Amino acid sequence: MKTHIEGLLDDREFFYRLFGEDPELIDLKREMLRKVWALFKEHFIRRVERENLFLISVPNRVEILGKHTDYQGGETIVLTGPKNFFAICGRAKDGISELMNADSAMGTTILRFEGEKPDLLCEGIGSQYTMTVAKRFLNNLSISSLPPPCAVKAVFLSDIPIGGGTSGSSSKVITDFLIFSSASGIYFERKFVELLRENAVKAGMLLNQPGVDDFLLPLSMYLAHYENGLDFGGLRGDRGVGTFGGSEDHTAILLGERDRLLYCRFCPTEVLERLQIPGSYSIVVAYSGIRAEKTKDAMEKYNLLSRTASEAVALLNQLTCSTYSYLRDFLQDLPPGEAAAAASKLLNASFGKPYIAERAYQFFEERNILYRAVDCLKKGKIEEFGRLINISHDLSRDYLKNIVPEIDFLQKSACSLGALGASGFGGGFGGCCYALVEQKNVPQFIREWKAAYLKQHPERLKEALFDFYPPCRGCYLEEISGT
Q: Which of 103, 152, 189, 404 suits 429 as a labelling partner, its CA being 20 to 30 A distant?
């Protein structure tokens, strides 16, 4: 029996399962979903087939360790965050898809599926992601003898800061995909599930990983390819959204668990373990107010880090007479603590390109830090874990050069206020910084961290955000009743 949406709105246990025990956070989430449902009722309830309504929640993520390593086959530790997209959607009666943002300033994206491509009729903020999803989904379905997606009506709302570095763009892509695929019924089709599984194997993914959903895992890698434009097995890619990134965001967003961190390896995706931060410590995240959107200049800077890593692969292949695809494949005979210096020395001595040598050094040293951090979490060495977080931040600042002064100030001020460790994260060039703090001190720490930042950067008063970040559940999709 379908759950009525009104019942879910009054069910604190529902929100607890998604976001944890914090009462203030649960109240905020209830109000978000109430707004989405109220607008859906007002604008779309008579214009959809009411027997097929769906509720969607898509979270954000925090990259704890593994900065710019996933697309070179490295490992990362990620936290599935409490910020999210809520959406309610249904199959449209009129053949026109409308995706309405409950924040009226963001507008509505309207499109129609016409033959081989969707036709954009009205642009809302983020419509480029919607069109990327619609085009790729339609193309992949058409060559797989599956029916095209139907027209949908949806209302959605997000509290993920735009350009905040917590993967709001990936969350938007996944939200749009779930809107089109659920309302069309394709998400639940056995043939579609098998299509993804088959192409995951072609892409080199190992299925039947212990404790990992055998549909959500391929789906995470498949949707990452919506952004980077790559083929997924035999499912052809296209331009994507223009970023040359990996799939850590999509893995965290789809596979996250409450109170757990995901430890994964990529290219292809493999969930290695689910880890815990000791119960007396928590993560707090500060959004600097500087957008790190992957558009224009920021996208070029982000992609330069990816291209430089690929250049390092090409040069190391030349030096070693190899044909490897990823940085992770080199220097496997060396201990993790020696690989960074060895890669840097090889590239500097042979080619005299310090920026490529620095990129390779950061990749291998970040992996070394991460391996040590995993050991610390398992053994409860929380102080050493915090120290490694600080080293990772310095590594990004000095070698990736993607840490802006505001993020560096947030990192230093967090440590001066008692955080065991703090680091900028994500693509960089703006965005967020996280801090590892004793749980009992979180409210006071947030007040003091915010005050210190705004004293130094008063111009960020309207944009900056400081939030408690418990590890939350990944994507949620449920068929609901609205009548």
A: 103
Strand order in the sheet with 465-468: 421-424, 432-438, 281-287, 465-468
DSSP string, 267-323: TTTEEEEEE---TTEEEEEEE-S----SSHHHHHHHHHHHHHHHHHHHHHHHHHT--
Other C-beta atoms closer than 10 Å to the C-beta of 278 total 12
The phi, psi pair for 453, rounded to 5°, reads -70, -45
pLDDT reading at 296 higher than 80: no
- Pairwise CA distance, residues 47 & 92, whole Å: 6
Output the DSSP codes for 224-249.
HHHHH---BTTB----TTS----SHH
Dump the DSSP string for 371-423: HHHHHHHHHT-HHHHHHHHHHHHHHIIIII----HHHHHHHHHHHHTT-SEEE
**Who contacts 352 (Cβ-Cβ below 8 Å, separation ≥6)?**
none
Q: Alpha carbon 360 to chain centroid distance?
A: 24
Using the structure block, give the residue that is written with the tokens 């027997």: 51
Q: How far apart are CA 472 and CA 450, in angstroms?
A: 23
**Torsion angles phi and psi, residue 62, rounded to 5:** -120, 130
Distance (Å, whole) CA 83 – CA 479: 22
**CB of 85 closer than 8 Å to CB of 76:** no
Q: Six-digit token pair at 160? A: 């993920």
Is 244:180 a contact under the CB 8 Å cutoff? no
Does 199 score more than 60 pLDDT? yes
As a whole number of Å, the end-to-end CA separation of the chain is: 13
Q: How far is residue 228 from each of residues 71, 248, 439, measured CA to CA in Å?
A: 10, 13, 37
Which residue reads 């390779």 in tokens?
360
Taking a C-beta distance cutoff of 8 angstroms, is the pair 274, 262 a contact? Answer: yes
Q: pLDDT digit string (tens) for 63-85?
A: 999 999 999 999 999 999 999 99
Tokens linked to 253: 């967003």
Which pLDDT value is given to residue 240?
65
Rounded CA separation 376/366 (Å):
15
Instruction: Look up tokens 């379908």; give the residue.
Output: 2
Rounded distance between C-alpha atoms, residue 437 and residue 469, angstroms: 11
Lowest mean pLDDT among 113-127, 229-243, 341-355: 229-243
Query: What DSSP line would sit under 12-35, residue for residue?
Result: HHHHHHHH-S-HHHHHHHHHHHHH
Reported as a single tens digit per residue, the pLDDT across 23-50 is: 999 999 999 999 999 999 999 999 999 8
- DSSP H helices, 84-124, are none
